[in-house]
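RETRY 2/3 - previous attempt timed out on the joint model. Re-submitting the same 513-residue input unchanged.
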Amino acid sequence: MVKHARHQSIGRPRRRWWLGLGIGLVVVLLLGGIYMWWSQRQWQQTDRYYDTVLRQSQQLHTQLRSGEAASVEGMGWLRAGLAEASPGGCTPGWLVAWQRSLVPAYRQAVQRCQQAVEANQQRATALDELQRHLKAQVAVATLLEGAQQQLQAIPATDYPALQQAWQQVRGQVSDLPDDSRALRDPLHERVNGVVTAFEQVTAAHQAQDRARLDEALAAVERAYGALGGLQDQVDQTYRQAIDRLLDRV
Amino acid sequence: MACTAIYSGAAVAMAAASSGAPLPLGQDAVARQEVTTRLVQAQPLPKALAALQPPNLGDKPQWYQAQVAAERQATEQQAANAAPQARRPRQHPQQPPGQPGRVVTYTISTRGRVASNQAEFAAQVNQTLNDQRGWARLGIAFRQVPQGGQFNLILSEAALLPQFSSGCSSEWSCRVGPSVIINDYRWQGSTPAWQAAGGGLRDYRHMVINHEVGHWLGHGHIPCGGPGAAAPVMLQQSISLQGCRFNPWPLEGELWSSTLGINR
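RETRY 2/3 succeeded.
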């Protein structure tokens, strides 16, 4: 009786130990499986993120070729297509990210994804710049078209009225927003040249000095010529912005 | 195994993306040019600037016209007193018909670093000014003199143009008082508007000389008379033809000079 009892008391802990070990192994295997499944999902997410970024750049390429960018609104659409992406989106959480130090394929996938994101960010910046240029041109063109209508209504020899109209244009140019500064400042300088020339014309007209009037009218022509020459300067800057975008698409 | 599967998935995605897509615009010159052209044409500013034309500066106020008329009357009176014989219009009284009666002198010089051949410049200027399609039709002959000319033709480095006057731009040629300044850069290559209209370099040179000397003769700018019409030489053809055909020579209606007292 006693022997039997001793035998039972010795056998129970052993079974428990094996049972505990078994359960522990099952739990570890289960957790390991969950971790592997979760890791895989995390890496797939990196993969999907990369695909999304690639699709955005392809879409930009296609839309640029189709001519959809040829307006401020069109550029806005293109820009919206390049949704904000960050290189951080390419890296899974730290519980998984460490695996790239062991697996070269993961490391390469992250690097490739980050490069694609950075390239898209550069495209977005170039597109923003181009859109800013075009917006400024639209604002200036609207202003000049309005001014021309007003100027056309003034008789060619009503010099004080022409001078006043150009002074108004100069004021309107000054009021252009700061983000069009690259265009506003050279335009202001040239419009100021026209105003100055008309001031000379008005002074010569009032003094009834023919030689001075001829000189001043020649200055008006030159000032208009300088204003027309603004296009070359604008064109150059605009083409540089286009090149910066196309170099990245 | 899982790692390889994921990696290969990314590789396939990338391969699909790159193989299915057209060449990058940075490498496809034709597509790039097309996109660039579309974007450049989308600019609204060139149209607005081209439309911004000066008023007809050839129109002069009444007091100005009265002064000119008075001077003309006085000149005619003097001429009548000095030479009572019949006077041909735009003809020096002492010259036979068809021969220039009045000599206008000019000097030629350069300013800054000039790339053009100066002898060729002088020769072409002389040829243009005395061409029977040009201002010579006023009945005047142009003669180059070493100094003391009535006007000075200056071939100038483009960057130095603004030094002549605040109204002069490095983009164009201009005239300041007796100085007729030709932009060396344009002399060598004309302008985009001129090239777009199919104008050649020699014609551009005729035009720019006639235009700037036209200012010295007393002309302001003139707008295009209508689509397809020959452009007045005093139209700013370097900037825009406004629908006119390019024309390097003065039109019949432009044959006058307030500077020389030659009326229409």
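Helices of chain A lie at 2-66, 72-81, 94-97, 104-152, 159-174, 181-207, 210-246. Closing ticket.
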